Amino acid sequence: MKFLILILTLIVSQTFAQIKVHKHLTIDDGLISNEVLSIVQDSKGYMWFATFKGISIWDGNNFKNIKKENGLTSSAVLNLLETSDSTMVINTFGKGIVTIKNNVFDTIDTEDGLTTNFVTKIRLLNDEPIIVSSAPQVLQNGKLKSFLAKPELINGPITDFIIDGDGTIYITSRNGFYVKTKDKETLYTTKDGLLTNITSFLKKDFNGNILIGSSLGLNKYNNGIISTLEFNGKPVNWTIADILCAKDGTNYYSGDNGLLIEKNGKVELLTIENGLLENPIFTLGEDKSGNIYLGYSRGGISIYTPEKFTNYEGEEFAANSILQYNNEFLLGTENGIAVLSDKSIKSITMKNGIISNYIRSITKKNNDIFIGTDAGLNILNKNKIISSIKTDKATQGIYDIEFSKFGDLVLSVRRQGITLISDQKNYQNPFITSFINTIDTTNKGNARGHGANVFLSKKNNNDKINGKIFNYINRSNGILSSWILDMLFTRDSTLVLGYHGSGVSFYKNGILKHFGKDEGLSNGIVQILLEDSENNLWIGTAQGGICIYKNGIIVDTLNVKKGLTSDDVRGIVQYSNNLFYVITDNGLNVITKKGNDFFIRQIKKEDRLNSNKCNRNALYVDNDKNLWIGTTKGVSIFNPKTDKPITEPPKVYITGLEVFNESFPLEKLKNSNRLNYDQNYLKFIYSGINLSAPKKTIYKYKLVGVDKDWVTSKENNVQYTSLEKGEYLFEVKAKNQWGYWSEPAQLAFVINPAWWETWWTRLMFVVTLGFLLWLAFQYRLNYLLKLERLRTKIASDLHDEVGSMLTQISLNVDFLSFTNDEKKKEEKSNFIRSKSKEIISIMNDIVWSIDSRNDNLESLVGRINNFAFDHCSQKDISLNFIKNIDNPNKPLKITFRQNIMLIAKEAINNAVKYSDCSELIVKIKNSKNGFELLIKDNGKGFDIENVRKGSGLKNMKMRAESINAKIDFTNENGFSVKVTKDKI
To answer: What angle is formed at CA 914 by the lines to CA 911 and CA 920, rounded to 5 degrees?
Structure first.
């Protein structure tokens, strides 16, 4: 190796351009239109964007769009504002005013008293909307009243106004700027310093200045003096489209050429080179977190977080190491060194004399800058390379550069171990002599080092090169590996070595101690080391997060489970006593120590970081306490001073409800508080408004009656299935990135029981069952009563008819015992025989009538047929029996078949005994039209008048009436009896 002294030539590579605007919203994200005209945040936290195609409402993640078909009178919305009662007042293009409150739309136009439907703008004064047009009006309690009569000094319409707290009136118009105080009124024109007499709008900033926007720039008015906004020493002479006076006192001016930012007397211009989508900006807005919204006339929306992040994008800024030197910043990359100053970006490459473009480490001592590359070491001083030390080709670069308390230069050289470089006069200091003579008597070095990590350069200690003494530390001296990723001298001068795969080693005063996975280290690949203010050693690993080491043990481990973005830790700095910053391969971590606990907050690409993939050892705090983060996509500069805690938690709202995956009106449920039993498959949709970091909103929800405890989720919806009947309370709350939880939003509702589970259904069932039981009881009772009546009748019949006949038989039997007259004996015997047959017939009829097996039509027909046949055959009468029945098995009531049988017997018996007929017709017919019984003979007939005096026809009539049947007697060509009944 030899020293090279070269004059360093710095080559200008490009014009200085910082990316400060990182987030954008367009139609691709759901914005209704890229032509944005007005921006407002409502009291709930939602952002409202007025466009030429309607209104977009944004919760930080999703858009809800309002169009003409939803209730707007015009798709083009010029501007909007909100009153204290949450009424949104909307100025539409040429269609008057629209108000929205509780999702109810109302229209105010000329029919309601509006001077004109072409309203130029709306303002809020004392919580009352002021409608600016040819004749300004105020909207009070839903009614329009005249407001602010046009002063005589003004020609043409009033374009804008401000009424100050002391009553001073400021008005812009087409012929100047008008001011009216208690004492006088004045019209200021170009003669007084205005850029143009055609002034458009006004704003008052926090310094009391009245800001006057026009097509030719911006004027300021204060105590009668007109001044002009300047940038780079020249008046701003382009159109100012909007003015925003931010809560932090910064003034923002949008116009044709970009965004002008005025703060503390300085004016900055942001353009497309700083991240704007386009230079012309039409409107401005601010949310409660201080984010600034830029609305373009064609490009959508950009969101600017003031001073929080500045990015340099591109591989030329993908820093592996970072160093501030005087007023410049050196970024060591794989393409050389990028040198950033206030006005330009320069580069140092091999063309300028450095050994290699691949820079792995940069540090400084006094006025010298030490640059470790993959081919050796360069030392710069006052823009000159004063030394170059090449390493062997077998080595793979200098990973770290440290200095001992004796001034020795300590290099970690991959495949070689440690190189110690000392002055000749100081090369025998205790650190050097003890280190090169250290022997690992435990032989752990040989046991742990293996493979590619073990390469011992064949070098001699105490090499003298150009006045420097070189010594080499390798495994023979007890270190565990020749691949050392990071080194650290602690406050007590202990040298800590972080290996790629072998954990850490501690060296002091000739003693080398090792600490690895066997001793409790989470992972053997140690990428970064830090000693904190309490002398704890933070060990950042590639796969195990951060191990915090103290007094020989691991006292805590921070990893993904505890909130880190990744377990691949690539950089650690202590920013203040309890504040640490950690980079990983998945973003930046802000770690706040609270007692023995750690609160971890994540910052990622969506938070304006250049890339989530951060480079090892590329974390640096500059003299202004800004944090520099090297990533694979460039370097990000983060200002922790702007990273103030947001103590106000997100406002959380239940925004939607789905029943069986179909939208259900939320207001309907809130009003009725009830769902049907078959509406028990529910999806609740909610939103926590956290515009500063919407993707970091964490939710907890609970359905009282189902969930025993809160359930944590990152999703903004939850689904419940097969909910039982009962009362429920759904609760959801949201947490922001700072750990502040909101109060829960609640939705109470009842799932009604099924109709068969209601009390009135159960009561009706009980009543119905009771009624049916009562009917059954009554039926049974009636049956028993009928049966009892039948029994009584049978007993009566037996007593009357059979008893009488038995008495006659008994008397005739007694008579037989007292007479010897054979003729009389024969006569009495015949009488007894006849009466016995009648008794048998009566008994058969009774038994037949009460036998349930005979309760059908076929049995009745057969019984009548048999009776008629028996009687007709005794007198040689021809029987013509006709039956025409549809259903022979049709069941019959006992009373019906008994009475029909008795009527038939009476009629047949009369015909056989008294009609002297030769033919008897018996016809039985039954169909759906009814029942018919006809008994007709061809005999001599009856004298009906005389017959009616007898009991036979009366009995038949009585029996017919008892079964609700009709009976007819006809004495023509014989005698006929006809019984009919509609339904049996």
So the answer is: 25
For the chain, give percent helix, strand, coil, nearest 5. Answer: 20, 40, 35
Q: Which residues of 289-310 are buried (b: 16+ CB within 10 A; e: fewer)?
A: bbbbbbbbbebbbbbbbbbbbb
Cα(679)–Cα(693) distance, rounded to whole angstroms? 36
Measured N-to-C along each axis, helices 894-914 and 759-797 cross at an angle, to the nearest 10 degrees, of: 30
Would you tell me how many other CB atoms lie within 10 Å of the CB of residue 731? 19
Rounded to whole angstroms, the Cα distance separating 780 from 770 reads: 15
Q: What type of residue is 190?
A: T
Q: Are 556 and 550 in contact (CB under 8 A)?
A: no
Give the Cα separation of 386 and 407 in Å (integer): 18
Q: 912: which 2 tokens?
A: 């056989």
Max CA distance (Å), the chain: 185
Q: Is 868 in a helix, a strand, or coil? A: helix
Closest of 617, 611, 631, 613 to residue 397, by C-alpha: 617
pLDDT at residue 317 above 90? yes
Q: Which residue has the tokens 């055609």?
A: 198
Beta strands in 516-613 (DSSP E): 526-531, 537-541, 546-550, 553-558, 569-576, 579-584, 587-594, 597-603
pTM given for the model: 0.74
Q: How far, in Å, CA of 349 to CA of 10, rounded?
A: 9
Alpha-carbon distance 731 to 744, whole Å?
A: 6
730: nearest Cα among 753, 699, 760, 752:
699
Closest C-alpha among 532, 531, 534, 470 to residue 504: 531
* CA atoms within 13 A of residue 48's CA, in its CB half-sphere: 21
pLDDT at residue 837 tops 90: no
Say how far apart CA 770 and CA 807 lie, in whole Å: 52
List, for residues 819-836, the tens digit of each pLDDT value: 777 787 788 788 888 778
Q: What are phi and psi of 650, to 5 degrees?
A: -60, 145
Rounded distance, CA 713 to CA 717, Å? Answer: 9
| Tokens 């989470």 belong to residue | 522
Characterize the bridge pairing of strands 47-51 and 54-58.
antiparallel
Cα distances from 852 to residues 818, 846, 860, 893, 932, in angstroms, run 46, 12, 12, 9, 23
The three-class DSSP label of residue 279 is coil
How far is residue 921's CA from residue 349's CA, in Å, rounded to a whole number?
A: 137
Give the H/E segment covering residue 836.
helix 822-850
| Mean pLDDT taken over the chain | 89
Our measurement of the distance from residue 91's CA atom to the centroid of its chain's CA atoms, rounded to an integer in Å, reads 32
Label residue 947 by pLDDT band (50, 70, 90).
Answer: low
Q: Do residues 6 and 353 lie in contact, with contact meaning Cβ atoms separated by under 8 Å?
A: yes
What's the count of helices (H) and strands (E) in the chain, helices before strands?
10, 75
- Give the rounded distance of the alpha carbon of 706 from its chain centre: 18
**779-799 confidence digits (pLDDT tens):** 888 888 877 777 777 777 666
pLDDT number for residue 442 = 47
What is the number of alpha carbons within 13 Å of residue 343 lying toward its C-beta? 0
Taking the C-alpha atoms of residue 142 and residue 140, their distance in angstroms, rounded to an integer, is 5
Residue 622 CA to residue 222 CA, distance in Å, equals 40
DSSP secondary structure string for all residues of 121-155: EEEEETTEEEEESSS-EEEETTEEEE-SPPPTT--
**Over 90: is that where the pLDDT of 948 sits?**
no
Q: Give the integer Cα–Cα distance in Å for 649 and 289.
A: 11
| Reported confidence tier of residue 13, pLDDT bands at 50, 70, 90 | very low
Provide the β-strand partners of residue 700: 712, 733
Show the tokens assigned to 730: 């759904």
- The answer to whether 151 and 180 have CB atoms below 8 angstroms apart is yes
Amino acid in the structure at residue 544:
G
Tokens 């009774």, located at residue: 846
3-state helix/strand/coil string of 375-443: CEEEEEECCEEEEEEECCCCCCCEEEEEECCCCCEEEEECCCEEEEEEEHHHCCCHHHHHHHCCCCCCC
